[in-house]
Amino acid sequence: MDSCNIIVDMLIEHRNLSSFDLYWNVLDELKDMKMPFSSDPFLVLMLGYWRLKNVEKVAETFGRMKDYDCKPNLYIYNVLLNVLGGKAGLVELAMAVFNLMQSNISPNLRTYGALLEVLYKGGRIEDADTMVDDMLDDISRCYCLYNYYFRLV
């Protein structure tokens, strides 16, 4: 993660998107060379856009991963949910992302915490309550989430 942060710092150093365009150009060249991609280059972009508070670009980057034949991992999903959680009015999008993720990746504690925040900030308290109640079977995860949830409320 440290190497990702170093690259993110370089990308956002001048607070403009030209560095990001250059980064995308490099990815395009690698794609043309049929290079396989891990999710790390996209994580760098998403974290950079997030630090610039550009939610739209974070979501766009997530969407473009498929163009590079790259599947998002759990960390990518968690970053996206955290970004969506920071902006009111994106509950439906966050729920769609969560449902997409669940089709091939098991959520972790951070995933549920981010989703609780999205629901809470979106005014969907009853949905957040239901989600926590549905998780009562897993006592350890539920305990941590209850603590997190009560800090939100």
Radius of gyration: 17 Å
> Can you count the helices?
9
Helix content: over 70%
Rough shape? elongated
Succession of helices and strands? HHHHHHHHH
Mean pLDDT: 85
Q: Strand count, sense and closure of the main sheet? A: none
Coarse structural class: mainly alpha
Strand portion = under 5%
Q: Kindly report how far apart the N and C termini lie.
A: 31 Å
Low-confidence stretches: none
Question: How many strand units?
Answer: 0
Please provide a brief summary of the model.
The chain has 153 residues and is mainly α. The protein is built from nine helices and no strands. It has helices at 2-12, 18-32, 40-51, 55-64, 74-85, 91-102, 109-121, 125-134, 139-152.
Keywords, separated by commas or semicolons:
71% helix, mainly alpha
Please explain how this structure is put together.
With 153 residues, this protein is mainly α. 71% of the residues lie in helices and 0% in strands. It has nine helices and no strands. Helix 1 packs across helix 3 (40-51), helix 4 (55-64) runs antiparallel to helix 5 (74-85) and helix 5 (74-85) runs parallel beside helix 7 (109-121). It is elongated, with a radius of gyration of 17 Å. The chain starts with a helix and ends with a helix. The model has no long low-confidence stretch (mean pLDDT 85).
